[in-house]
Write a structure and sequence with these properties.
The chain is an alpha+beta fold. It is built from three helices and six strands, in the order E-E-H-H-H-E-E-E-E. 26% of the residues lie in helices and 28% in strands. Strand 5 and strand 6 form a beta hairpin.
Length: 132
């Protein structure tokens, strides 16, 4: 199956960038989910993660709450993925949330080797990713 890459991009031929790599497609969808603020999508206000709401909390539970929010969002919106690990780093000084989500396909029980992508969310809402 071929799908457009997320975030949207234009390839070297001037067409929409696409991939047939199923892992890449799944990681792209996870990045889009984690990088979307709750309420940002008009027709799906409950799609996304409230990273902005956790960014400027001064308690030490912000990282744990971010991990729970990501797990809940993936469970609700990406049934083809199973979260195997999440590491969240909330940096109030820099206004950044770094989230590394490791996933495995949900249709392969017992498969614990996972791919991951680090999604960084800035206080201004910018989303960037590290890794494939």
């Amino acid at each position: 199956m071929v799908a457009m890459t997320i975030p949207f991009a234009i390839d070297s031929t001037g067409g929409v960038a696409q991939t047939d790599d199923l892992w890449r497609q799944l990681l792209d969808r996870i990045q889009a989910l984690v990088g979307t603020q709750l309420g940002e999508r008009v027709a799906r206000a409950d799609y996304g993660v409230d990273s902005a709401g956790l960014l400027f909390t001064s308690d030490q539970l912000a990282s744990a709450r971010m991990q729970l929010a990501v797990r809940d969002a993936v469970a609700a919106w990406e049934p083809s993925a199973r979260v195997t690990s999440i590491r969240a780093n909330v940096n109030d000084q820099l206004g950044l949330v770094g989230i590394q989500v490791e996933i495995a396909p949900n249709d392969t029980p017992g498969l614990e080797s996972a791919n991951s992508r680090i999604v960084q969310i800035g206080a201004d809402g910018t989303v960037s990713s590290l890794g494939v």
